[in-house]
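Model the whole thing, not chain by chain.
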Amino acid sequence: MVGRPAVPEVIWARPERAGRGPKPAFSRADIAAAAVRLADAEGLDAVSMRKVAAELGCGTMSLYNYVPRKEDLYELMFDAVSSEYDLPEKPSGDWRADILALAHQARAMMHRHTWVPRLMSPVYGFSPNTLAYIEYTLSCLDGFDAPFGEKMELIAMVNGVITTYVANEIATAERGRSLPWSEEQEQEIRTRYLISQIATGRYPRMAAGFAEDPGPIDLEGVFDRALGRVLDSFDG
Amino acid sequence: MVGRPAVPEVIWARPERAGRGPKPAFSRADIAAAAVRLADAEGLDAVSMRKVAAELGCGTMSLYNYVPRKEDLYELMFDAVSSEYDLPEKPSGDWRADILALAHQARAMMHRHTWVPRLMSPVYGFSPNTLAYIEYTLSCLDGFDAPFGEKMELIAMVNGVITTYVANEIATAERGRSLPWSEEQEQEIRTRYLISQIATGRYPRMAAGFAEDPGPIDLEGVFDRALGRVLDSFDG
DNA sequence: AGCGCACTACGTACGGTGTACGTAACTACG
DNA sequence: CGTAGTTACGTACACCGTACGTAGTGCGCT
């Protein structure tokens, strides 16, 4: 039995402290905080095992004692920002308002940590703070008379819409961040190309629509409207 | 003027054939097809400039004559699979049915090319086939009496829900693909951990819900229900 | 008390990535 | 016909995740 075959494990199932050996120099919270700091400052792609280790002040491979795979580092990060929700002790009783308030918290959190939507995945659904989040959301829905499955579908759909819409907001806002040229240039190039395509006459409906020019888009309004529609579709 | 400062450009704005010089050995369609073949067979992470070049039978750096950045390769791929839609000459007149049919085509396409949801982003919205797709969708909505902005919001929301839900389906189905252990093991580990957490009593509502055990989930049913809700929220 | 072992720490190394740069061959235009 | 711009592609650099080996440390058991 020279080498274990890389035992599959959820990182949350591992005890944070082992019984034997020297006591760990860092906690999971330390590691997650360092990674989150990096991602906030330089983007998710800047989060590498080397850089996180350097941020912590330890050797690269030492990090692997705490985080067996990089994917687990992502899971730590996701859980860390999920702790930023302010979950009231008890829901207000108006489940629609409670869900909306939660959605706005989520949106604000993602704007603070713009890399979060890229990590959104059903895979990260079992972390401690995520479980607390789901449980609280379910408590908001105590007054919503529906079977458990429908409540979960509501939660999934709301979270999906939040992620999708905020991801769009962030993608358009931060598109130029990683590019060596300015956002204005990029924007101009893209719209000029779009205009040239529309001018071909192949897309008459888009041409007519964009001719109206409704001015700048109110992103938060779009977000609220989409969310309202989703809740309406369950409310009726 | 020794080196241009990496002029920003949308790849679709570039002419595929330059006037001078030897004629290119490959078309964009060739390149996209090679990349799609690779992604289908080995996953999106296997799509590297080197491997695509090898698939085409040319040197790695030759590929950069056609595709200035890797991001552009993704854009080619996305456009390539967007050509797989079967867009009828004229919509049926029942816009709800037409949108649903389109959504099922999208879902099937993403199950054929499971890497597509990972590429979904507002950034890839100007490719030729994407423009055709949007224009056709707008034509379906000719009978839907609403301002242009609301039609675009409908399209955005439908596409968002499709992507989110199919991404979930794929993520759970393919989770074990890249792991060195089996999907059954992974699944067992995860559910065992979840059960242990629920058993702590900290999540009474989840405990109650999962105690019901409604049997296997009908993924297509969930998809259809979600989509139906979205359309309902616009229909009323 | 003391032995053994699980754990921490970390340097080295391997195979992979995107892509900047330099050079050689080729062709369509002025 | 020359020449400028394009294609082709080998080399090289910085960076990535992580397997592996070695050394040191201190808890738990006998």
